[in-house]
Structures are given as structure tokens and as C-alpha cells.
Amino acid sequence: MPVEIVEVIRRSDQGVTLPFICRGDDDGIYFVKGRGAGRRSLLAEYIGGRLAQAFGLPIADFAIVNVPQELIRASLSSDIADLGAGLAFGSRSHPHVQELLISQVTTLDREMRKDVLVFDWWIHNSDRTLTTRGGNPNLLWDQATEQLVVIDHNTAFESPFDCQAFATNHIFSELLPEVFDDLVEREHYIQRLERAFLTFDVACDSLPEDWWWVDDGVPAPFERVAIRDFLASFNSDFFWSVK
After folding, report:
1. Separation of CA 237 from chain center
2. In the Cβ-directed half-sphere of 216, how many Cα atoms lie within 13 Å?
3. How many angstroms separate the most distant Cα atoms in the chain?
4. pLDDT of residue 17
């Protein structure tokens, strides 16, 4: 069952899609992306999140949420139409978190960094950058538990995907040779990707039907078959080649 949104608190001033900060009937605070984010973004967020969970990443809890029409009508916000009524994507807020800093990168567990790197390569997610000049890591640091929290997969499943740009710009790209040039490491990840891949169709089939459509008779720009095919390529030499 979707989490019912009972209060729209305000709109976030961070993130490309500027999600709405809302309270659910479970008393959780959620960053909610709705109509303004676009159908493809919602599909990528949910499917990417389910794959991340299956792969074993410490992703922020998320849920499909329902925004009642009454809340939209009662809102005085000029941009409330960007939230819209109906089913939306909600990422649950974590207390005690801050955006990962460049100074913290090398202190992170090396295996965790490789996990994030391989996963992003697999789902064609290049939206995880950070250098001394800035960037957008889409990674949080939980100060209470001293754990990484992974967020945001709304731009995943990019097509075309620029392998070279990924290898240059990803926050953990310096670790690519440790995985791609090591057959033992590759086999380790192939097994994990194989297990996670089983979640793809399950995730797709559990989505709200209207997310697959931009409008009546107009499908969302999300090529399920093509995406499934490139996700299934993890066992090929081509997959492990940055060319």
C-alpha cells in the first residue's frame, strides 16, 4: 500500500527536480517527486532504487506515496502543480545526514566505493560527481551511524551512455582498474549483478500503471526492453571495457 501524504511542508531548494518535503501517515518525512519530475524520472528512481537494494547498497528508504487531491487544492504554493495529486515517488528523510564532502571520500570503505562505482556503471548512472571544484555526489553521510546513504537514481538508464565521461567524472572512478582489470573481482560482481538483475522485471511490474504513460496513448520515454538488455550484459567482456 502507498504511504498516504498528510501534509505538504515546503519545497526543497536542493536537487535538480526540487522535490517537495512532505509528511506521511506513518509520520515519516519524505522528499516527494511527482508530476513535475516527469514520468521517466519516476520510473528510473523506483527501478534504480529497487536494483540498488537488491545489489546491497545502503540506499535511503523509499516508497510509492499517494498525494490526495484535497492537499493540492488547499495548498497556497504557486508551484504545487509540480507535485500534483496521485501516486508519486517518496524518499524518506534520514536524520543527522549531510551531503558527502570531498574530504570524506578517501575515508570511505574501499569496498563500498567500488560497490557504488560498479552499480552506477551497470545502470548507466553518471549523476554522481564530486571534485575540489564541486559536483553532485548524490551521496549522504550519516553522522550518527557513520554510514554512507545513497540517494537519487532519477537519471539512471541513460541512452546514449558516455563511458569515457563516466570513467573521468564519477566520484569513485579512480577505482575502475581495481575491478575491471581483476578477474576475481569481476566474478564477484558478476554474481551480485546476476542476483540483482532478477529484481528488474519485478520492479517494473509493481509500478503504477499510469507512470508508464505521459498522456493518453503517449508512452513514457523509458525503453523497458532495451534497458533490460543492457542490464543483462554484465557477463560479457564488452561490459567490463571502458571504450
Report:
1. 26
2. 0
3. 58
4. 80
Cα(188)–Cα(181) distance, rounded to whole angstroms? 13
**Given strand 97-99, what is the order of strands in its sheet?**
97-99, 139-142, 147-150
Give the pLDDT confidence of 78-118 residue by residue, as tens digits: 899 999 999 999 999 988 999 999 999 999 999 999 999 99
Query: How is the chain split into domains, by residue range?
Result: 3-92, 97-240
* pTM (predicted TM-score): 0.95
Q: How many CA atoms lie within 13 A of 225 on its CB side?
A: 0
Distance between CA 243 and CA 228 in Å, rounded? 21
Q: Decide if 32 contacts 38 (C-beta within 8 A).
A: no
* Helix boundaries (H) for the chain: 39-55, 69-74, 110-122, 163-169, 176-180, 183-197, 199-205, 224-231
* Residue matched to cell numbers 509528511: 23
- What gap in Å lies between CA 128 and CA 106, rounded to an integer? 15
C-alpha dist (Å) from residue 148 to 16, 32, 105, 116, 121: 21, 21, 10, 10, 19
CA 12, 18, 22, 26 dihedral sign is negative
